[in-house]
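> @MW can you paste both from yesterday?
MW: sure, first one:
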Amino acid sequence: MNQGKITNLLLWTALAIFLFGSGYKLGEYRTSQKTRQRPFYNILNAPSEKTQQKDKNIDFNLFWDTWNKVEQKYIDKEKLDPQKMFYGALKGLVASLEDPYTFFLTPEENKQSKDDLEGKFEGIGAQLGLKNNRIVIIAPLKSSPAEKAGVRAGDYVVKVNGQSTKNWSLPQAVSKIRGKKGTKVKLTLLRGNKEFDVEITRDQIIVDSVELSFEKRKDCKRDCDQVAYIKLNQFGENTNEEWDQVADKVEESWNNKSVKGAVVDVRDNPGGFLESSVYVASEFLPFDRLIVKQETTDAGTREYHVARRGKLTDIPLVVLINKGSASASEIFAGALRDHKRTSLVGEKTFGKGSVQEAIDLKGGAGLHVTIAKWILPQGAWINGKGIEPDMKVENKLPEGNTLTREEDAQLEKAVAEVLE
């Protein structure tokens, strides 16, 4: 074999080895990329062609391409939590509707939402406020861990677990003091001139959605006429049952003439169940009176009427409202106003005129989705507009203070209206 043939043979052999090696490495790279796409989890229940709607034409390759690129390129691999990424994608999907009342909830968030409607949370059981821009105990709840630990109304919270509360906002203080049942929190309290520590074991706290007390005018010293003051914190899971107990007491007080009327306070009541607002409003209105209409695009209109005999249909009544009164609170206040059953005192309400359905999804997740809008008896849709009070009264507080009875001009006006 001459030199030229040997050279050509070597060249072809080298080329063959190069091509084989390149092909092998390319295949190895592709294989590694495929196995790197989802290295520590499997994708379950991906839609088959039979279940996909042919008219959508949405190419999910972009979704998986983005997912894979994030996994491959993102610098902090410890933050690549596929479950969290999956929930985040679902949140983004629902948020694309640009409806603030339609949203996806993770299992933890869904549980918290249900607990809130049931009036449950975990913490020490103390109502916090601000006084002179300092965190202060407004009142420990009855039989709460805070009360049992000796916490008193008026105590300033100086530190939480050794961290100073100076310049804290109220939500910040609440988030630091709340915690899971069985865990402990150390508060440094200031009472008078004495500063001391108290360690409290958190527990599950049940907050009543309906509270009853009896109020009189501030300037009355003795032999004072009283009104039943009913604070509705929300229209939740237990509201109807709690309401029945309170309504019985108010009816008894009205019948024996120990009260001159009632004030129902839905200030800062964010709403809750529509059916619960209908139930409570029915206490004050004649049988079969229209309370609210629910309109949908596919199921037409549904009307909610008074379907029971109310105990308080003739008691003088004033309803307190403000910008925190929303949704079911506005149904309650608006229906009574439309039927000229009450005067509204305070400030304009929030203005939420839509209805959401709470749906439980797999794994404990949830979905709140807007399904309808609601219309008041006289035809008003107050979404984005709110309900104006008949008597506008603003509470003016020194900056950094929490409202007290002495400073509550709205409540004072409501009590005066009932008594006049």
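MW: second:
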Amino acid sequence: MQPEGKLGDIKDAGLADEGLRLIAWADREMPVLRLIAERFAKERPLEGIALSACLHVTSETANLAVALKAGGASVTMCASNPLSTQDPVAAALAVAHDIPTYAIKGEDNDTYYAHLNAALDAKPQMTMDDGADLVAKLHTERQDVLGGVIGGTEETTTGVVRLRSMAEAGKLRYPIVAVNEADTKHLFDNRYGTGQSTLDGITRATNLLWAGKTVVIAGYGWCGRGIAMRARGMGSQVIVTEINPIRALEAVMDGHRVMSMEEAAPQGDVFITVTGGKHALDAQHFQLMKDDAVVANSGHFNVEVNIDALDDLSTDKTRVRPMVERYTMSDGRRINLLAEGRLVNLSAAEGHPSAVMDMSFANQALCAEYIAKNAATMKPDVYDVPRAIDDNVAALKLAAMGIAMDELTEEQAAYLASWESGT
């Protein structure tokens, strides 16, 4: 292990060259972020700002960190999940880009929270979070540096839910832009990114054949929609469980079966949770599952699966593959839990493809710039991404793909803006 110091806390500084190759490979499909980084290098909109980012330390995230540094920010990185770090990328950030990075794949909980503290020791003026762990620690144990923070951003659904709860309770102390709420984030990253990367992670962990499998998906938000779409495309029969009647109805109209988890539990071959909540899979469901069922989570925290209940119900636990723990029940049935119940797409695979993270991280970079310019007039609250930023990211992505759009003529624009014309 690389000793903690100027580099941060990484597994092995000798992995930096490999990390640079991975970062460059991701950059190939991140043209929007590249354009922003080039502008940032000229304009330096983040000059002098200390920015602590708690994100999945992947090759795509590294390109974001480099763009933020190009904009003048003093960036410190830590991991937002103990299993999501790509160690070569962490080494490259620390060694080649001089960005202190506190992230080691497989770090235990104590190390994970020590790394959060290390990122806050940098006394950030801006935070960039994925799941709101950094913000939560700032508002509880690290209020000593809270006063210097002018604003932040949040990447994912779970984090936005936590932050809105804080804001409603009057506990949030600085403005945060919910990047997850941008159309160019959740419509693409959550749907197409999570859809593809979740199946990728489960396939790498298990080598199962999707065709003919019954796949039970807990939650039909944008992530659930994406997973259902991809699973059906691979030949699976999809069952959706939901608590929201609108989403449940949408799943039915999309051609999926919808039922309660208790009804689905005996039928499923593969179970995937993406609810953002707690114990979507619980003791009563494990007791109903068929032999050799596969359980995976692609929601942010591993509480979506009640792992304690699974432990209590089992008589034996064996690691049968690098990311597969097989629990044997008292009646002989076996349940296979993937990646310790953590984000399977990042733990067992590489997370979202670079092309979709290009839009998400373009939003992150532009929202950091927006906060730097506007924080003084923003009250402590959770803000949506400004429409102009969202539209700009979409336009840049289309341009990078060589796709042109129509524009309204003056006559068409006038018609849409008027009320006089009718039948």
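> thanks! The two ends are 74 Å apart (CA to CA).
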